[in-house]
Design goal:
The protein is mainly α and 195 residues long. The protein has one domain. The protein has eight helices and no strands. Helix 4 crosses helix 5 and helix 4 packs parallel to helix 6. 39% of the residues are buried.
């Protein structure tokens, strides 16, 4: 119908704008959206940390990158939060969608307060706090690329099939009751939802 505003198109424009603004201002997308939800100016949103660059708007376009997929070891273009989680999703064989990225940002905030997680509490490039089975502490990875690859590998090698399936659907983790038990196991009973 001519003259009618399409809600989906409007939401897509808004989400794209949030990603673009976050990239320009070197802010985390989650902090931008959180500030908007709470009626605050996104210019006061918390910084994304010591970001080394990245292109959040480009990462949000979805699709896969040549040579990516389960176990391919997709390397983040930089140490930014968006590029890190983009690499994790690609290594899982999951599309890089807004829903998937927002879910990963939210999940990361349940485990670590900021990004990059390099040496935050000794957890170098381990924002989801994967345990080291040898020491019992948290695993530490040498780079963003190594951390993203090992995070995806851990999910694929252990009992996180529902989480992987939800991400591979492109619909993210929010509002999905089938992943509650896996998130509870991941967090040691600390949470069963990330959104």
């Amino acid at each position: 119908m001519p003259g009618r505003v399409d809600g989906i198109a409007l939401a897509a424009i808004g989400a794209g704008s949030a990603f673009a603004y976050a990239g320009i201002r070197n802010k985390s997308v989650l902090s931008i959206i959180n500030e908007l939800i709470h009626g605050k100016s996104p210019s006061t949103a918390a910084s994304a940390g010591a970001s080394l660059g990245g292109t959040p708007a480009a990462a949000a376009t979805g699709g896969s990158v040549a040579g990516s997929g389960p176990g391919a070891g997709s390397a983040p273009a930089s140490g930014s939060e968006t590029s890190f989680y983009t690499a994790v999703l690609q290594d899982l064989g999951a599309p890089v969608t807004n829903a998937n990225l927002m879910s990963m940002y939210a999940w990361g905030r349940h485990e670590e307060p900021g990004f990059p997680p390099q040496n935050v509490g000794g957890n170098a490039w381990n924002p989801l706090n994967i345990k080291n089975v040898v020491t019992g502490g948290f695993a530490q990875y040498s780079s963003a690329s190594d951390g993203a690859s090992k995070t995806a590998g851990f999910m694929l090698a252990n009992n996180y099939g529902n989480i992987v399936a939800a991400l591979r659907s492109g619909n993210g983790l929010c509002g999905n009751p089938s992943i509650a038990a896996e998130l509870s196991a991941w967090s040691g009973g600390g949470y069963s939802s990330v959104c």
